[in-house]
Design brief:
The complex is a heterodimer of chains A (about 220) and B (about 300). Chain A has seven helices and six strands. Chain A is α/β, with parallel strands linked by helices and about 220 residues long. Chain A has a six-stranded mixed β-sheet, sandwiched between helices. Chain A is globular. In chain B, helix 3 links the parallel strand 4 and strand 5. With about 300 residues, chain B is α/β, with parallel strands linked by helices. Chain B starts with a helix and ends in a 13-residue tail after the last helix. Classes of the chains: A alpha/beta (about 220), B alpha/beta (about 300). At the A-B interface, helix 2 of A face helix 7 of B. Chain A: This is Catalytic LigB subunit of aromatic ring-opening dioxygenase.
Chain lengths: ~220, ~300
């Protein structure tokens, strides 16, 4: 048997140090995520950490650079760039002090375990709930968003893999829930193992539902 | 070709830029800064929140901005951001009567209509509009044809591909200014091909549309890469979130930041400034025009008498 662990973190670029401006509005949420990652790294002592996020393009992005300049408006290169969520996950992992091997992969929520999940002792799952919970978001508020986000919160808090697998992909897309495919992939990987879950954070400080939690299970 | 012209960035896909700006029934020199007053016929626009929804208050605002020095009034029937649905019929109802009323009461003003819908544009042009302010980047492919049919001016804006009334969500650009310049030049080419007159095309980088605050600041910082093409540029910075986020100020405290952004854009050569505060903007752009040498100061006696 081997102990496995996952840390669920937000993927919003505002959490990157500096990108939120002088007042660093993402500092509090970032601190919670870094604290959870630090604890997981100490408890599991992985050889390799896998960073997992959702993207329509499913591939291994290990070694691809992340461009903050794309958000600053200063990027010039048109080289392939790391998907944002993976970049945020890697940055949070680095902030937790990890200097070891990192593999970064994307998933569309489907497919067999060919994303390297089986080889990782710790996976950082990057994604968020809906940004359509209230006005001020990228589109009109959707009244379904809070209830679906709450179902995610309950599932993550309980380590309920079945509930995460049952998240309707179409509804998740309509609600712009970026984490849904990655959470479904995580749930499929964990399978029926008994999960010890600890929920650290579940709120929408910037209008986007963000969740931070740690999962441990034994295989 | 003089040296200055030969060194100017060019848009090889476009003909030589015009030496005048024609907006419907009015023609302006390229060196004259123009103030475009925002007049919203909406209940929920971000700044005025329905203050000029009814025709009476709307026309009062037109009279006020004309007295404050506006050259153009921009009439909008739909809030730019996410909000209540306004269908075409309602938008036409909100806009066309207003266009006709302003045309009758203020014949000196250029009447602009803020719409992305060709159906609304057509009715607005029939009512006498001079300029179609399409901030949603040609979302309706028939709108340029309406501008050509009625020989009115057209704004070609950059939104980073957003659908109408949506906001940016973690949008990144491999080359922001390249995307902006390429986007508006492409729309200008389409407009010319549709028959819009070359002296009636206006480019707009569209601050905050598909852009976060960093990106809107970068557009402001490097606006000369757009104005340097030699085509008229419109900027709409008034009370926008990039101003508010830069200074960490709420909506009702963004006047100074707006005027600062206006001054920077004017210095870079933007010609049309779409604003809520007409009087303040008039002073800023006229001052900057004097600094640039585009127009003389108003009255110079000190030290000369």
């Amino acid at each position: 048997m081997s102990a496995r662990g996952a840390v669920l973190v937000p993927g919003a670029p505002v959490l990157l140090e500096g990108l939120g401006g002088r007042t660093d509005p993402g500092a509090a949420v970032r601190a919670v995520a870094v604290t959870r990652l630090t604890a997981a790294l100490e408890a599991i002592r992985p050889d390799v950490v896998l960073v997992l996020a959702a993207d329509p393009v499913v591939r291994d992005w290990t070694g691809t650079p992340f461009s903050v300049g794309r958000f600053l408006g200063t990027a010039q290169a048109s080289d392939p760039h790391l998907p944002t969520a993976l970049g945020v996950g890697q940055a949070l992992l680095a902030a937790a002090g990890w200097t070891g091997e990192v593999r970064s992969v994307t998933t569309d929520g489907t497919g067999p375990d060919d994303a390297g999940l089986g080889a990782a002792d710790l996976v950082v799952v990057v994604g968020d709930g809906s940004p359509l919970r209230r006005s001020g978001g990228p589109d009109r508020p959707d009244p379904r968003a809070p209830e679906v986000d709450d179902r995610v919160r309950a599932a993550v808090a309980a380590g309920d893999t079945a509930a995460l697998r049952d998240l309707d992909p179409g509804l998740a897309r309509e609600l712009m829930i970026t984490g849904a495919p990655a959470w479904r992939r995580l749930a499929a990987w964990v399978g029926d193992a008994a999960v010890r879950a600890e929920l650290d954070y579940a709120d929408d400080p910037f209008g986007v539902f963000m969740i931070i939690a740690g999962w441990r299970w034994t295989t | 070709m003089d040296l200055q012209t030969s060194l100017r960035p060019s848009a090889p896909e476009l003909p030589d830029p015009p030496d005048r700006l024609r907006l419907g029934h009015r023609t302006f020199p390229r060196t004259q800064p123009l103030v475009m007053a925002i007049v919203n016929r909406t209940r929920d626009s971000f700044y005025d929140a329905g203050a000029t929804f009814d025709l009476g208050p709307a026309l009062e605002r037109v009279a006020a901005v004309a007295a404050d020095g506006a050259d153009i009034v921009d009439i909008g029937g739909v809030k730019a951001g996410p909000g209540d649905v306004v269908d075409e019929a309602e938008e036409i109802r909100r806009v066309t009567g207003m266009v006709a009323a302003v045309r009758a009461s203020h014949p000196e003003l250029v009447v602009s209509v803020d719409t992305w819908r060709s159906s609304v544009a057509r009715e607005a042009c029939r009512a006498g509009a001079d300029l179609l302010n399409d901030v949603w980047a040609g979302h309706d492919p028939e709108l340029a044809g309406v501008a050509a049919e009625f020989d009115v001016a057209l704004v070609c804006a950059h939104t980073g591909g957003l659908a109408p009334r949506t906001g940016p969500f973690r949008t990144g650009y491999d080359d922001l200014l390249g995307d902006v310049v390429g986007g508006v030049v492409g729309l200008a080419r389409t407009a010319l091909a549709a028959g819009v007159a070359s002296d009636s095309i206006v480019l707009d980088p569209a601050h905050d549309f598909g852009k976060n605050t960093w990106q809107s600041l970068e557009v402001t910082r490097r606006l000369d890469e757009l104005t340097g093409l030699g085509w008229p540029v419109l900027v709409s910075v008034s009370n926008k979130d990039f101003v508010g986020e830069t200074l960490d100020l709420p909506l009702d405290q963004r006047r100074e930041g707006t005027l600062a952004a206006t001054a920077v854009c004017a210095w870079h050569g933007a010609q049309i400034h779409r604003v809520h505060d007409v009087a303040g903007t008039r002073r800023v752009v006229d001052f900057v025009a004097a600094v640039r040498g585009d127009q003389p100061p108003a009255r110079t006696v000190r030290g000369l008498a």
